Amino acid sequence: MTSPAISVRDLRREYRRPRTSLRRPAPVVEALKGVSFEVAPGERFGIVGESGCGKSTLMRLLAGLDQPTSGEVQVEGQTVSGLPERRLGFLRSSLQLVFQDPMGSLDPRMRVRDIIAEPLVAQGLPDRRARVSELLEAVGLSAEAGERFPHQFSGGQRQRISIARALAPKPSILLADEPVSALDVSVRAQVLNLITDLVGELGLTLVFVSHDLSVVRHVCERVAVMSAGEIVETGPTQQVFDDPQHPYTQRLLRAAPSMRRALAGAGAADLLGEPS
After folding, report:
1. Among 32, 92, 104, 150, which is most exposed with the fewest C-beta within 10 angstroms?
2. β-strand 230-236 against 222-227: which pairing, if any?
3. Model confidence over 232-265: pLDDT tens digits?
4. Paired sense of beta strands 6-16 and 28-39, if any
């Protein structure tokens, strides 16, 4: 039996708010309340829920950028939770993260070629120039784009650069945290198609987080629905969308704008034309 790419067991994360009284202890916020799930190698797994439900906290724990209060995260059979940064070299090679805000995640003082090469430099990998050109082409940008700075690109192009940087060290797992929520609707369709194509071509495992169920439906095979720090429903995406069992999922589906209409209206020229 194939081992899971990601295994999460009873994951909890608590934060203490600043004290408001000398007589009372600092209040505790439960961001995650015993979350458990597995993601199979090569699977496209979606995590969906409203803002504040714990999605981004969960992604930080998966990426080893934060530590849980209790519970365990394993990536490709190796425990991540509880390890200091100096022992997470294996994780930085195998798992990469694409953030929501491409401008906020790209250093405005660096040329694009140096931004994409950052993970390669950190890991001491050779042939960086050739790899950067290959990645720019893979995300639909020219090799000459590497000489420019982030502010010289549109939002969609900046997210393409972020994707190229994430793919630079040849990870096997890609985490995407709301990667299209800051983009125009027509550009969302292009970036979603790019992510889907690259995940398929490279055989990646994808964990895709969004507050929009219809975006997850376009990208993911299986979905987990989060509410108030808990997974309330999980299953094949089509099944969850067509026959939601939990009242929260039912409400979320009724309230969600339809990305399907946007994708249908984008047309072949928008989806396959010049990158935005």
Report:
1. 104
2. antiparallel
3. 999 999 999 999 999 999 998 888 755 444 444 4
4. antiparallel
Do the Cβ atoms of 135 and 94 come closer than 8 Å?
A: no
Contacts of the segment 263-268: beta carbons below 8 A, 24+ positions apart: 263/189, 263/192, 263/218, 266/185, 266/186, 266/189, 266/190
Give the pLDDT confidence of 27-62 residue by residue, as tens digits.
888 999 999 999 999 999 999 998 889 999 999 999
Domains in the chain, please, with CATH? 6-16+28-268 (3.40.50.300)
Q: Are 224 and 61 in contact (CB under 8 A)?
A: no
Span 168-178, pLDDT tens digits: 999 999 999 99
Contact 175, 91 (CB under 8 A): no
List Cα–Cα distances, 129 to 93, 105, 117, 133, 171, in angstroms.
Answer: 19, 21, 8, 6, 18
Alpha carbon distances (Å) from 173 to 32, 82, 238, 252: 22, 20, 23, 28
Q: Which residues of 56-79 are buried (b: 16+ CB within 10 A; e: fewer)?
A: bbbbbbbbbeeebeebebbbbeee
Helix 155-167 vs helix 128-138: crossing angle, to nearest 10: 130
